[in-house]
Fold:
Amino acid sequence: MTTPTYETDFYAWAQAQAEALRAKDWAALDLNHLIEEVEDLAGRHRDALGSELKRLLVHLLKWHYQPTHRRDSWLESLEQARQAIDEVIDDYPSLADYPPVVLPKAYQRARRQGARETKLPLTTFPPEGCPWDLDDIRREGWLPPDAAGDSSGP
Structure:
């Protein structure tokens, strides 16, 4: 049987690389691909944080701009996203400084998704950036007021 390569059978390659690491068989290691995979793995956690922030922002936008459509499920989604963000940061403390970095991009993506989901014009949502403070957004139970200033639940 031929030795699996990164290109031909990723799973078998990964298993062979793990075994080579355990055996300290440095010559058997495919360092370039291992480095690429470790960097990709780290990026996945960073990307998950950005994705959860976007999900949180979508529901906050819907809450703010569609007060007549509010649902308990939105509240649940808000808290799940907040918990997911906290869990990523708890598990990977070096990502604690990432939310402010990704907020502008996550907000712009949330605007577009919010417009699609609400059927409201994209211009409904402030284009210049997120209208809320990141600390507020992440705080458990925080809700933006609707146009009348009411932040009460459904």
Notes: Residues 15 and 132 are 46 Å apart (CA to CA).
